[in-house]
Design brief:
Blueprint: H1 3-26, H2 36-47, H3 50-67, H4 71-92, H5 98-113, H6 115-122
Helix pairs in contact: 1-3, 1-5, 3-4, 4-5
Length: 123
């Protein structure tokens, strides 16, 4: 992958997760109050403090990707967040699944960009 294209993908992914991680603390992006199954799901995530852990992971990964420090590790860690976000939206909020699909696509592209870093791990 071209190094400039990879840099853009890496920074876009970093900004994406940084903004949404910070939003979990500061609530600057207006969102509807979840209801029904979505409300129950978010209620469980909030009560168990899992959502705060996800926010911290997103913030750390975003900063790491933007500054290109430990990006390969953070991209692997973010894969679980990306897959879960897409599955959540596809099952409980299909109308708003585009953002999660973009997150997963950026994450996969970043993994491909870091493929040389994983050769030792996968050999």
């Amino acid at each position: 992958m071209n190094s400039k294209v990879f840099m853009v993908i890496r920074i876009l992914l970093g900004l994406f997760v940084l903004v949404f991680g910070l939003n979990k603390f500061f609530h600057f992006i207006p969102m509807e109050e979840p209801t029904g199954d979505t409300g129950a799901y978010f209620g469980a995530l909030i009560n168990s403090k899992t959502l705060m852990l996800v926010a911290v992971v997103e913030i750390l990964a975003g900063v790491a990707l933007i500054f290109n420090k430990f990006g390969a590790l953070m991209t692997v860690i973010l894969m679980s967040v990306s897959v879960n976000a897409l599955l959540f939206h596809l099952t409980l909020d299909p109308a708003n699944s585009a953002g999660a699909a973009v997150l997963l696509l950026l994450n996969i592209l970043a993994l491909v960009g870091y493929k040389d870093k994983y050769k030792e791990l996968l050999s």
